[in-house]
Amino acid sequence: MKIAPDKWKHFYVGILMGAVLQTIALWVLTPLLGTIIALFIVIVVSYGFELFSKITGLGHYDFMDAVASVIGGLLGMGLAALLIWWF
Q1: How many CB atoms lie within 10 A of CB 30?
Q2: Count of helices and strands (H, E) across the chain
Q3: Torsions phi, psi of 24, nearest 5?
Q4: How far apart (Å, rounded) are the C-alpha atoms in residues 50 and 31?
Q5: Minimal CA–CA distance to 34: which of 19, 52, 49, 15?
Q6: String of b and e for 7-18 (b: at least 16 CB within 10 Å)?
Q7: For residue range 12-47, what is the model confidence (pLDDT) as tens digits?
Q8: Which has the least CB within 10 A, 2, 17, 18, 48?
């Protein structure tokens, strides 16, 4: 099964989004609350972007794009948390 190139773009953007949000959340909030809020924002932004595309017609709605973004976001959040813990 080959993954479409646009899914990879969403995945990479999700990594960056998750890493930035997790870093900010861990800097400002407690670890558990920060992680929950960062994950919530990753999900809302990922699906919100797709919903915006569907409502306005300015893009192509694909639920799997949101899924790819959330998976990337989870990876980015994990990498950010690991790097913050390590240093």
Answers
A1: 10
A2: 3, 0
A3: -65, -45
A4: 29
A5: 19
A6: beebbebbbebb
A7: 999 999 999 999 999 999 899 999 999 999 999 999
A8: 2
